Amino acid sequence: MVKGANVGLAALSEDVGSVMVSLGWSSATGEGDADVSVLLLDGAGKVRSDVDFCFYNNPVAGNGSVQLLGKTPTADGSEDRISFDLDAVPEEIDKVVVAASRYGGSRFGELDDLRLTLADSAGDGLVRFAVEEADEVSAVIFGELYRRSGQWKFRAVGQGYASGLAGLATDYGVDIDDDAAEEDAREQGEQEQEPERDQGQGYAEEAPLPEPAGQPTAPARVPAQATGARADDASAAPAQDGPAAAPKPARRPRTAKKKVTLPRTTRKSLADNESWRSARLFPVSALKSDRERETRATSVVLSVMAQVPEFGRRLTAGFGAPAGRMETFTEVTLPHGESPRRPDGVVRVERAGKLWTALVETKTNGNALKPDQVQAYMDIAARRGYEAVITLSNDVALDGSPLVDVRIDGRRKHKVALWHLSWAEVVHQAQMLIRHEGVGNAAHAWLLQELLHYLQHENSGCHGFQNMGAAWVPVRRGIDDETLCQGDARALEVIENWERLVRQVCLRLGGELGQKVLPVQRARRGSDPGVRRAELADHLCEQGRLNAEIRIEGTPGVLAITADLRTGKLRTSIEVPSAEPGYPLSRVKRLIRRLAEAPADLHIETLVDGPGAGPRGTLERLRPEPADIVPKDGAQITGFRLSLFKGMGSGRGSAETGFIRSVDEAVDRFHAQVVAQVEAPAPRRSRSEEPTG
Predict the structure, then answer these.
(1) pLDDT digits over 262-275, tens only?
(2) CA-based, 20 to 30 A from 189: which of 50, 339, 358, 468?
(3) What does the alpha-carbon distance between residue 687 and residue 584 come to, in Å, rounded to a whole number?
(4) CA atoms within 13 A on the CB side of 279
(5) Strands 603-608 and 616-618
(6) How far apart are alpha carbons 638 and 495 in whole angstroms?
(7) 14 DSSP assignment
């Protein structure tokens, strides 16, 4: 679409009761990012209240009809996705505006390939709009969904705001916190002194909820969000005594619900000795066969999805499911010719009298999905009018490389979407909820904790991607004896499995840290993933190395991973910029002090402006002599590269000597002992100081 054009969604697809909107962009460094927001407007073009402003502190709006799903890895990096249940949007809402904003003085001109895509509930792309001429703005309206004669239409807008998120939100009636507005002005140079912060800003400590039996809880931290109306009742703070005391302004009422998270450490056990085992809701000791593991894992996950709304919604929203009452079933028998079929599970969501149904096929313990089974379930779903088939296994799906090939009958009027979940992603979402984001009550937190304990147990069979494939050993041998040639299909298989492993590393580390951890793809955006992987396979044949980069939110640079199959070494590294003032030796000494707890074998290389490499050395040698990595020719220091080396596992699996385990251990060690100690760049403005609608 071009700027200003509009189109009716019903003319593009029959499955537009719920749609998925994705916003994407790229940058030359892979570091550019923006925050997505959605505004629900009435007939007057204004929000009814600030709860109609959907952003990072308020990710669900419109009675659950709009939900920000966050970043999702794609073949070219990542994109932000928003789920719209158009059938459930309140009748008072005439228009829904989709926008994004940058922070800390950044502008959209620093990003490339600004784009919006819209897909129907079956996952078929309907609309693509490229935003241009957004050089000097810090907020952009990408597009809007609006009603006309009872039907939903989409308009490509592409309008920019130099005043940022605050200016955009104010235009549509969002009541901006005075302090946030002053902070925006200060960043633009309009003020020199930092304004005094409101008591309602930031995070408020809440009293912990009652504990479930045997499980401690932690005080929940929730954003102190604000609504459009000012509170002037008992929520206002009392005035201080004395003639000079002025009454404090009334606090705005919170819109965020109290959330419960579980601590990482539990209280001391009352058991007589350590051999006693705590009673578990989902035991795993009796599992003896793959069939038992599949049946138990399916029942455990589906039951928790139905009982914990946040968890069920998190796993199904990306598949087009509405936000509604969820019921789950196992071992359902469905007719299919002469032999009935029994999918492992069924998920049904009811919203406004309508049902969304998905069949579930589960595999555990590294077992592969069977194409004939999945094809049969796709056919059954199409005949019965179901919306989706969801496969769940230890494998990780890649764009452009389907796990199973299914035949789609083009003559069928009803479309069925095929989606895949990895067990690693299920674990990731459970970790994010119970350790970082919180759930509605303590019982739900305990259920998720029991689920997590089950999935991570060695006997569950739900351990994520654990095998580099049959081509791993032949490729390594071919690299050793220099017989591996470009174009070898086995090298392409290794590249695909390496990409799966890196994505799983991101999920695992992100769940542990509670931060965004995403793979970085420096290939040109929009390029075919098959072509990109073929180029990487040729690079592997030529140089014998696997390379990957991951970005961890809040860290000063990109974490690079290199597996050199010729030398059997794993290298993890990060480039830390050096923009502090001072003499070169002073900057080096500051870096050495920050790395006081880092391993002695850490390699430090000075990065200099211009051609050539700077001096380098190990931390053990540089601690007494930091001047050794100061350039002797007076070259300007631009940063430092920190690297650790580790032996690489030889096996293709995740056993003690396996390659997958060695990668996990190398990334964990480097992050804990190096990255976590390096001082991050000056933090951007706190999100609680931006418009809090």
Answers:
(1) 776 666 777 778 77
(2) 50
(3) 34
(4) 3
(5) antiparallel
(6) 33
(7) S
